[in-house]
Amino acid sequence: MDAITRSAGWQVVDSNAERGDANYKKTVTWGVAPELWVTYVEDLITQVSVVIVFGVDRNAVETLADRIAALLTPYSRQELLVMPSGETPKAEQARYLVRLALSASDSFDPEIFEKIQTAAGDRDPEIRNAAAWAIVYLSWPQCESLLRRLAENDPDERVRAGARMLLESLKDG
């Protein structure tokens, strides 16, 4: 994404470099044209990232999104929704959950929520913990309830403590 933005000459209009969440994610927004922006979000722990194109003119947004997609080869929705098998290494399962959360829009998506909710109930505490971290990227009310359930009822103290800390971070903005 750095190469794309440099060659296009886009100007940074916002960054989280000086904010409290900079220790676990990188967020940069560039102004492409009047009323057209691109935001890059990267989870620094899993190194999963997403590019979001937004603006007033839907055609301009779609055109730019298609151009960027041609350069970056993003996952399709169908690929994103395929849950990894139980044989998949835990680190890749965690990356999957973060990738799924980063791909979600602000509008509630029951398919994505169901996948994260399933992971939050996994028998492995590391997978439940990864589900809790993925929730941080979602702004749906259902996610806060799920995180609260993990904070209060998870059988593993580490997952409960992590979920409590994440709930506090959501309150802090």
How large is the radius of gyration?
17 Å
Distance between the first and last residues' Cα? 27 Å
Structural class, judged by helices and strands? Answer: alpha+beta
Strand order of the largest sheet: 1-2-3-4
What's the count of strands? 4
What does the average pLDDT come to? 93
Give the number of helices: 8
Residues in helix, %: 40-55%
Give the overall shape, derived from the CA principal axes. Answer: globular
Low-confidence stretches: none
Largest sheet: 4 strands, antiparallel
List the helices and strands and how they pair.
Blueprint: H1 2-8, E1 11-15, E2 25-33, E3 36-43, E4 48-55, H2 58-72, H3 77-80, H4 90-103, H5 110-120, H6 125-135, H7 141-153, H8 157-171
Antiparallel strand pairs: 1-2, 2-3, 3-4
Helix pairs in contact: 4-6, 5-6, 6-8, 7-8
